[in-house]
Design brief:
This protein is an alpha+beta fold and about 375 residues long. The chain has two domains: about 240 residues, 3-Layer(aba) Sandwich (Rossmann fold); about 120 residues, OB fold (Dihydrolipoamide Acetyltransferase, E2P), CATH 2.40.50.100. Helix content is about 25%, strand content about 35%. It has ten helices and 21 strands. A six-stranded mixed β-sheet has the order 6-7-8-3-9-10, with helices on both faces. Strands 11, 12, 13, 14, 15 and 21 form a six-stranded antiparallel β-sheet that branches. The protein has a five-stranded antiparallel β-sheet with strand order 16-20-17-18-19, with no helix packed on it. The protein starts with a helix and ends in a 9-residue tail after the last strand. Magnesium ion binds next to helix 2.
């Protein structure tokens, strides 16, 4: 057995364990009783709207904020009362928080010097970290002389140089423009694959979370709403908040469910009935009031030549052209406002605003939630 394999064997499966952790600032509860395990080597994302407690939770893992209650383990060690520099977490802050007057080398060497590594090791590990973020040879530069994107990489190099147990990233890409951000998303993923570092990534951008994560923790108002892999989160949101926050989705009016096995029919106000077949997951009971959530790509212009289910008459309100597709807003009889996603841009001329269309809703992959559980809306 190699040394590394022996070490891995001794270590617990979870790199980080958060047990019933809360944070109160006076009367404000920023984080409420959160329990969460982060697996070794995992890329886990904390996702939620601004103010939901992401930074506070990350700061408690790093030790920059003390938990009001609860307990945190890193690699099986209780670190609840351990100061930040003894927790061995590498952190990238939202604003980078580099030392502006120091050189790139000294910034990256910071964690190594704190840990009293010898000079040779420091030189080697700084170079290695700079190489990882594709800035080798930049050590002599002043931080002030670097672009935003380069500073972001230096912050990343500083966080990984000393070999942390966990990498904590607080919205590291939010200050970058769109092209650079996409590029850095790829590079962060590559870095994660190369190093195998357990990574906790914070973002309010659901697209970023879906594209980068092994698992996503959706938070709202200091609480975890759902923990799932991206695909599962998109197709099986646990409640109305997650359904609305992850991707675009239409929330239809409350309907009465008639259920026979996985065959369902939904009676909407105004004598409109829609049907769905073969829905999976935990489903509400027969005769309950439910909310049906349906993605814009599951709604199409009906083909008059084909017998189709769930055809409804609708009035076109507006179009938003997006290149590969068009988002068309309609007002559907009995269902209210609906957004649909139509390939290309031809619909803009063929069905101008004010015209009447017949649309078909494919509900076989819809999300059906008990009306009482679907109420919480994404901000
Ligand atoms: N030092 C503080 N003092 C008082 N309230 C705070 C402090 N830090 C954060 N909060 C509050 O805690 C909540 C969560 O904040 P934060 O963790 O920064 O959210 P996020 O990172 O998800 O945007 C917010 O309501 C915020 O105003
Ligand atoms: Mg934050």
């Amino acid at each position: 057995m190699t040394d590394q394999a022996a070490l891995a064997k001794k270590q617990p499966e979870n790199a980080v364990e958060i047990n019933d952790v809360a944070k109160r600032y006076g009367s404000v509860t920023a984080v409420k009783q959160v329990t969460l395990s982060i697996r070794r080597g995992e890329f886990l994302t904390l996702l939620g709207p601004s103010g939901c407690g992401k930074t506070t939770l990350l700061n408690m893992i790093a030790g920059f904020e003390a938990a009001s209650s609860g307990q945190i383990n890193i690699d099986g060690r209780d670190v609840t009362n351990v100061p930040p520099y003894l927790r061995d977490t590498g952190m990238v802050f939202q604003n980078y928080a580099l030392f502006p007057h120091m050189s790139v080398f000294d910034n990256v060497a910071f964690g190594l010097r704190m840990r009293k590594r010898d000079r040779q090791t420091i030189t080697r590990d700084v170079e290695r970290a700079l190489d990882m973020v594709k800035l080798s040879g930049m050590g002599e530069r002043r931080v002030k002389q670097l672009s935003g994107g380069q500073q972001q990489r230096i912050a990343l190099a500083r966080a990984i140089a000393f070999g942390p147990r966990v990498l904590l990233l607080d919205e590291p890409l939010s200050a970058l423009d769109k092209n650079l951000r996409t590029q850095m998303q790829f590079e962060l993923k590559e870095l994660h694959e190369k190093t195998g570092l357990t990574t906790i990534f914070v973002t309010h951008d659901q697209g970023e979370a879906l594209s980068m994560s092994d698992r996503i923790v959706v938070m709202s108002r200091g609480e975890i709403q759902q923990i799932s892999a991206p695909l599962e989160l998109y197709s099986r949101p646990a409640n109305g908040f997650v359904a609305s926050f992850i991707g675009e989705i239409n929330r239809l009016p409350v309907a009465r469910l008639s259920r026979r096995g996985t065959s369902m029919s939904f009676a909407f106000p105004g004598a409109l009935t829609l049907t769905a077949e073969g829905l999976a997951g935990v489903l509400p009971q027969d005769n309950e009031d439910v909310r049906v959530f349906v993605r814009p790509e599951k709604i199409a212009i009906a083909d008059p030549a084909k017998p189709e289910a769930n055809v409804v008459s609708a009035k076109v309100i507006s179009h938003i052209y997006q290149g590969t597709h068009t988002i068309t807003r309609v007002e559907a009889d009995g269902l209210g406002p609906i957004e649909m996603r139509v390939a290309g841009g031809r619909i803009i001329d063929e069905q101008p605003a004010g015209s009447t269309v017949r649309i078909t809703l494919s509900l076989d992959h819809a999300v059906v939630l008990r009306a009482s559980e679907a109420g919480l809306e994404a901000a």
